[in-house]
Amino acid sequence: MVSITEIVGVVGGIAGLLSLALIIYKTIREKPIISCEISGEPYYYNPSNESDNFISFSVNAKIHNRGSRHTTIHDWDLAFEYNNEKFKINNNNYGNPFQVNADSTRSQYFILNIKKEKGPFKDYVKNCALTMYHTFGEITVPCEKIKESK
After folding, report:
1. Are 40 and 149 in contact (CB under 8 A)?
2. Residue 115: is its pLDDT beyond 60?
3. What is the pLDDT of residues 21-47, one digit of tens each?
4. Could you give the maximum distance between any two Cα atoms of the chain, in Å?
5. Is 52 within 8 Å of 44 (Cβ atoms)?
6. Residue 123 has pLDDT above 60, yes or no
7. Do residues 81 and 140 lie in contact, with contact meaning Cβ atoms separated by under 8 Å?
């Protein structure tokens, strides 16, 4: 014969497993679902006079959060190739972190600078990727090339 203690134990075990499954499901479901696209054509400026110390890269992006929780983009960088050499420009927290609310889209303009001694670059840089680091991870958005603005 089955005792009441065994029945309570089995019911408790099943309830615990169901509770754990529900917590895992909610954790996966409620986190931000981030996607991003480059809007417009990214470009860069070579310094126009001797007093300018940086080459500035500009990228405009639309960031979509399709999840049910907001996230904060706290850092970003831009990687690219020029003449078979790889470059990476880190924001180094110069820009202010910004929030992307749940179930929303935000346009963000990124400007990243690299010392002019690394350049000058001519025409295009290629194999570019903008990486954004947010509360729950990171997202990388490729852009084929970035053109020089004249």
Report:
1. no
2. yes
3. 988 887 776 677 888 999 888 888 877
4. 93
5. no
6. yes
7. no
Pairing type for strands 43-45 and 34-38 reads unpaired
Do the bridges between strand 137-148 and strand 43-45 make them parallel or antiparallel, or are there none, so unpaired? Answer: parallel
Please provide residue 3's backbone torsions phi and psi, each rounded to the nearest 5 degrees: -85, 160
Q: Give residue 117's pLDDT.
A: 82
What value does the CA radius of gyration of the chain take, rounded to a whole number of Å? 24
| Tokens 């303009």 -> residue | 109
Measured from the Cβ of residue 110, the count of other Cβ atoms closer than 10 Å reads: 20
Token output for 55:
């080459």
The closest of 136, 113, 135 to 47, measured between CA atoms, is 113
Count of positions (residues) in the chain:
150
Plot region of 94 (φ>0 → left; ψ -120 to 50 → alpha; else → beta)? alpha
Strands (E), the chain: 34-38, 43-45, 54-65, 71-82, 85-90, 98-100, 104-115, 124-134, 137-148
- Strand-pair partners of 24: none
pLDDT tens profile 56-110: 888 999 999 988 888 999 999 999 999 889 999 988 656 788 999 988 999 998 8
Q: Determine contact, residues 58/91, Cβ cutoff 8 Å.
A: no
